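Shift notes (night). Ran MFS transporter while the centrifuge was going.
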Amino acid sequence: MSGKTGSNGNSILRQPKAVWAVAFACVIAFMGIGLVDPILPAIADSLEATQTQTSLLFTSYLLITGAAMLFTSWLSTRIGARTTLLIGLALIVAFALAAGLSGTVEEVIGFRAGWGLGNALFISTALATIVGAASGGASSAIILYEAALGLGIAIGPLLGGLLGSISWRGPFFGTSVLMAVGFIAIATLMKKPTEKPVPSPVSAPFKALTRPALAILAVAALFYNIGFFILLAYTPFPLGLDEMGLGLTFFGWGLAVAVTSVWAAPLLTRRLPRTRVLWTVLLLLGADLVAAGLLVQSTGGLIACVIVGGALLGVMNTVLTESVMAATDLPRPVASSAYSAVRFLGGAAAPPLASVIAGAFTAATPFYVAAGSVVIASLIIVVGHRAIAHVDHEEEGELVEAEAITIGE
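Came back to this:
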């Protein structure tokens, strides 16, 4: 976030070892978002899988991540943040390793689901852990956390391309090893908490969806995520690049997401109402997806659309999640759990849907469907404005902003 400074000089870098351990693990966890993009075609070739089967690597991951988000606050308030982090990391280590050892695409799909469970447990508690353990105040901790998040999103596709150029199994093995290092670091450097958290009821996220403002934003996010994940999970196939080419393309995408989510989104919401930012950026994203359809035969044109799309997605992710947090008086973990579960349904459905549509029509058609979906999301924001208008006037602090970036990604 532009202009942030720690409360005293170099306090951002003067952190306890436990904070650096969690920050390192955050980088690796967020790398997992774009890690498989460069190796999707290679997996399809090596395992003799169809494009639709390969796209299910995203579906299983997102479906389980979304479902797990409904229960992470309930679990972490009973077993504690440190234990939740370690369980999440252990699951990622085990399932990433298993995915790399798989002999069929069905096995990889199943192990990616387990990876999604681990990621949900880790990400849901990482920010609170860093803020609680950091020195120099919450501001310093948030800067460090956002730096780790942005680094992970940008590096993930690049590492996937580098390791994937050796073997499609490489990114999975690399993630497993790095997460194992993160697990050891947290287990040895983070002390067990002395205070017990206040338990959260398991029904809280389900009841949250009965709130009109939250329901409207969650449904808009579902349609938005269809566009998001068609761009992310389908585009590697029509691009036709090798692993390194895809890695560099989605490195540009990840860098754009990170930069606009951390800097551009707060800048826009300081000058414009959140709802106006939402429907405007959604329409711009729709135009970008239409351009991707028209330029599907042009490698350079399609790469440009991917990177521009990343810039728009970064703004959307942060502003939409900030709006969710301001929409109700519910505890933020409850609201974000309910919202995430619904929006991930759109992300889970999008990759196989895009592949089926491309097979039935043309390579450009999925992009037009994605554009239509984000336009629907824009219309939901406009039509439901009365129920969500109050989010335009809510002032959010740095901690809420950082949580919005986390959940948005």
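Confidence is low (pLDDT under 50) at residues 1-10. The longest helix spans residues 51-79.
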